[in-house]
Design a protein that fits this description.
By secondary structure, this protein is of the alpha/beta class. The chain contains 17 helices and 22 strands. A six-stranded mixed sheet has the order 6-7-8-3-9-10, sandwiched between helices. It binds adenosine-5'-diphosphate (ADP) and magnesium ion.
Amino acid sequence: MEYVVEMLDIRKEFPGVIANDNITLRLKKGEIHALLGENGAGKSTLMSILFGLYQADSGKIRVNGKDVSISNPNVANELGIGMVHQHFKLVHNFTVTENIILGMEPKAGLSIDIKSAAKRVKEISEQYGLNVEPNAKIEDVSVGMQQRVEILKMLYRNADILIFDEPTAVLTPQEIDDLIKIMKNLIKEGKSIILITHKLKEIKAVADRCTVIRRGKYIGTVDVESTSKAQMAEMMVGREVLFTVDKPEKKAGEAILKVDNLSVKSSREGVMAVKNFSFEIKEGEILGLAGVEGNGQSELVEAITGLKPITSGKITLNGKEISSLSIRERINSGIAHIPEDRQKRGLVLDYTVGQNMVIEIYDRKPFSDRGLLNHKAISEYAEKIVEDFDVRAGQGVDSITRSLSGGNQQKAIVGREIELKPDVLIAVQPTRGLDVGSIEYIHRRLIEQRNNGKAILLVSLELDEILSLSDRIAIINNGELIGIVNAKDTNENEVGLMMTGIKRGDTD
Ligand SMILES: Nc1ncnc2c1ncn2[C@@H]1O[C@H](COP(=O)(O)OP(=O)(O)O)[C@@H](O)[C@H]1O
Ligand SMILES: [Mg+2]
C-alpha cells in the first residue's frame, strides 16, 4: 500500500471564504510530507478535516486504502491519526502523565493506573528520544517540552499518521534542531508525518515531498530534494520572492527617542529586568535590539510604551520627558507599538477589524465628534489600512477579528500602527510566525518608514531579521546593554556571542 492517507478534492467553505477549494493531498507510508502555504491558505482547515474537527463539504478521504468518514477526533484516533495543534491543549496544573491519559477510556473493568501509565510514558519518551519527564507539572516545563508531551500523547494512543501544525513557530533554534531529530526518529520507527509549515528552510531539512496550497487552492506537490526554495516560495505566494531587503544608504538625523540609565523591575521580587540601560534612536534609523528571549527586552519595551513603571532613569521623546506619561499620552506624543503578543495586547478578537483599526484613536476627530461616533469615517479609515496592508478577511472591515489568520491579524496591527504616523515605531517580533510573503511585505514597510525619517526600534529573536533590517544593533543580556554595533561592520557570529554576554573586545 503506497498511500496511508489520501484526501481527494476536499472542499470546505466558511462564511465569505472558501478555505479549501478541491484540495488533494496524498501521504505515502514512511514519508515526511510538508504542507506549505501562506497564512490563511487553508492548511489548518485541511488538517482539521483529516482529524475530524471539521467535516468537508465535499471530497473523499481514504486511510490505508479504505474510504472513511471521520466524523470526530475519536474516529481519527481509531484510524491511527494524531495531531499536534498550533496551540497546545494541555491542562497546566496537571502532570505530564495526567495530561497524556486525559480523555482515554479505561479498558473494560480496569481503571487507569497512573504508575503504569507513567512507566509507559517513560518508555515511549526513551524510544523516540523525547526527553519528557512523566511527573513534571505542565506549568513548570518549557514550551519545547509541552510540545513533546503533545507528541507523546499521540504515540501513547498508537497513532502512526502524525500531523504537526506549525510546530516550530514556538520553538528556539536549538529546540527546532531537536524536533527535526525527533521527526526523523519517528519515521525510522514506521510513522508517517504531515508537517504544516511556511518555513522553507525546515522543509528542506526534513521533508521528502511538499504539497503547496495558495488561497485555498491546490497548486502542486513536489519532490523536496529536486526543488529549490525559490521555486517553492513562488508556488506558495504566486510571484517571485526576493529573499533580501533593499535598504538604501541613509544618514540618520537627530535623536528622536532617548533612553538614559533606565532601570525596570521584573515581575520576580527583588530582581531587576533592565539595568541602567541607555541608547538613542535617530530620525531615519532602525535600531535593532538583539538578545535571547527573556533577557529584559519585554520590560524595556513596556517601560518605553508606558505599560510598566520605571524604577530610575529617563525616557525622552523629541526632547520632552515622557517617563511618567500614561500609555495614551505617549501614543498621542508620537509612539506607536506593534506588540509582542498580538492576541493579548494588539487586538480585541471579538471586535470587527474596523473597530480594531481605530481602537487607540476613536475618540479623535473625525472618528468621534462631541461624543458621537462617525461610523463612515471609521470605515473609510479602516478600509484604507486593509487595502494598503493587504489584510485578507472574508467580510473586509466587518469581519470579526478572531476569524482572520494570524498573518492577517499581524498585517492589520502593523498597518494600524504605521497609519498612526508616529515619530517612533516600536516593532516587537513583527514577523513572528509569518510566511515569507508576509515577512517580505512587513520588512519593506519598516524600511519605508525608516526612509521616511521615522525612528524604529526593532525587537526580534530572529537574528537574520535584526541583521538585515537594522542600521545599528543594541545587544541586551540579563537586562544590561552589552554594546551597540553598526550593522554594516558586524556579523551573526559577533552579535550571537554578545547575546551570551561577551562584550566586544573581551578576550577569553
Ligand atoms: N472556523 C472558521 N470560521 C470562519 N473562517 C475560518 C474558520 N477557520 C478558518 N477560517 C478561514 O479560512 C481560511 C483558512 O484558514 P486556515 O485553514 O486557518 O489557514 P492556515 O492554517 O493556512 O493559516 C482563512 O481565511 C480563515 O480566516
Ligand atoms: Mg494554521
